[in-house]
Predict the structure.
Amino acid sequence: MKRIVLLTLLHVIAVTSSAFGQQDSLMLDKIYHESFYNGEAYDNLRYLTKEIGNRIAGSPNADKAVIWSKGLMQKMDFDQVYLQDVQLPYWDRGPQEKAYIIDSKEPLTVLALGGSVATPPQGLEAEVIEVELLSDLKKHGDQVRGKIVFINKPWDESIVETGVAYGLNSSQRSRGPSESAKLGAVAFLFRSLSSSRADDFPHTGGTGYIKGIDSIPAMAISAVSAIKLSKALKANPTAKVYLEQHSSWKGVRHTHNVIAEWKGTQSPEKIITIGGHIDSWDVGEGAHDNGTGTMGTLDAIRTLMALGYKPKHTIRLVFYMNEENGVHGASAYGQVAKDKNEQIVAAIESDAGGFAPRGFDIKASADRVAWIQEHWKPLFEQKFWVSRFLQGSPGVDSGVWGRHFPNTIMFNFRPDPHRYFDLHHTAKDVFEAVDKRELQSGVAAIAALLYLVDQQIDQL
Ligand SMILES: [Zn+2]
């Protein structure tokens, strides 16, 4: 008898869960259909990139993007749209950088690294010391004094996950200026982090200085120019290089995160945060980084709204300011949420480009990730080609505010990584580099995840 009851019970559970699975599967079909046929992310992205353009935090363009995206949210069925105060130091590149090899007058393509100080107004000239790794510098001891340190470390082409190749080397960019200045260097030149399909576009990115050590100008050099310079130095190790840049910090600016809330119908006090950063670097148009992330998460919500969905939990869309050079927006968001003692049950972030979706990295316990792999992954895998559901790191912004919310389960959208770092932080990151179908496919994947999180987070 007991056995029969148990079997009946198991049967009921199996039928219920497959019915749920079927219902979810139908909903995912509708989401993909809505996104492919009626998606607005691509057109919104066109406006953001072409009418507003790049938008470093604190700049007039960044403020334009804030006002415009607030207006976009106000046109939708959110219950509340508001700006959240963010204060940050504003860094400005100034007039275009110049660099060349003195003897040959051979130009080198460079970009100041974000946060860098300027050269003297008339530029500087110095010999160059080339190494692959900062740790090699010490071997050169006194020879570093008075020279430009040139880190020429090619990208590891064998790593499929390009973010890992980037991460392997990016700490040299941030630590480099101070490590070089400690040994008396006068400037720092860093080979751009990108695949060795070498082109002449330098990639900017943040750097910093250690207090008490001289701040020296720091620049990124394109892969092609790095190869050119390295060749010239082999031919003449005492060849001098001219560098000129005018970047500086311009004091504190008052700006905003943009936030919209769609109130939950069952547990409105429980919040699901979704979004990405609205700022970009000051070159290109900030299309993949991170126009696609903001316009994509907005459109994921529009997709669910268009389908008449009513969320159980409150869905809060956040466009963070200043991910690129300070993360002050995410810090402000975290502080306010902490002070209000909010219950943020889950977070979804999109900040890895708008290429075809591959899945999500998940910051959660192994048990929870296994549950997601069992219950959600099959819904995406066969039909939609989205199969990566692995334990991993959250996005940068979620990671920063998440310090106050260690138990929040966090999802980091992962599109195809192959081409992202060809464009990342360069003049090539423009609207034309985004494919509409790939972008809307990502929107659908994010909307589908948001739906599943809202429906089933309490079972996790
Ligand atoms: Zn980004």
Q: What stands out?
A: The chain has two domains: 26-91+251-459, 94-246. The radius of gyration is 24 Å. Residues 26-91+251-459 form a domain with the Aminopeptidase fold (CATH 3.40.630.10).
